[in-house]
Amino acid sequence: MRILMVCLGNICRSPLAEGIMQAKALEYNLNIEVDSAGTSGWHEGEHPDRRATQTASKYGVNISAQRSRPLSTSDFDQFDRIYVMDHQNLADAQAMAQPHHHTKIRLILSTVYPNNTPAVPDPYHGGDEGFDNVFHMLEQACDQIAREISQR
Ligand code: 4NP
After folding, report:
1. Taking Cα atoms as reference points, which of 16, 6, 4, 7 lies closest to residue 52?
2. Is 12 among the residues known to form the active site?
3. Cα of 120 to ligand 1 centre, how many Å?
4. Per-residue pLDDT for the chain (152 aa), expressed as one digit of tens each?
5. Active-site choice (49, 92, 122, 143)
6. How far apart are CA 115 and CA 124, in angstroms?
């Protein structure tokens, strides 16, 4: 199974989601591939935001080697599941995808909150505590995804 994590810049939320999901794959011994991308190409080629890297590192997850890339139309063929962080990401990703691929695209917190699913808030313009909050939300979501896949 191939899983793609998507946010706006691919320097804060989706790199954390990618790193956490990879750690869960090891922990649960899952045969999955994980990648991430941004709905914008604003930070293409950049490493994750330092605050994201530091927060991940605090919890034993290394995301420092990742590089931002924009979401591409071929991603909808290549990946089985595309998890987005917020409702704007969802709209932007759906607008790029063919209708038959729309069911692959889900809000990542729908795994934890299937009704009235909240967004993973964009921490870019806030302080360090926003990254900690995002980390814990993503940790919950990725754990749920890993449990669900391991029970299949
Ligand atoms: P991300 O956060 O979507 O979680 O990577 C952002 C990164 C950069 C910008 C916005 C959000 N930006 O405006 O450049």
Report:
1. 16
2. no
3. 12
4. 999 999 999 999 999 999 999 999 999 999 999 999 999 999 999 999 999 999 999 999 999 999 999 999 999 999 999 999 999 999 999 999 999 999 999 999 999 999 999 999 999 999 989 999 999 999 999 999 999 999 98
5. 122
6. 26
CB of 42 closer than 6 angstroms to any ligand 1 atom: yes
Q: What's the pTM?
A: 0.98
Q: Identify which of 124, 125, 133 to mutate to test ligand 1's pocket (most ligand atoms within 8 A of the CB).
A: 124
Asked if 51 contacts 7 with a C-beta cutoff of 8 angstroms, the reply is no
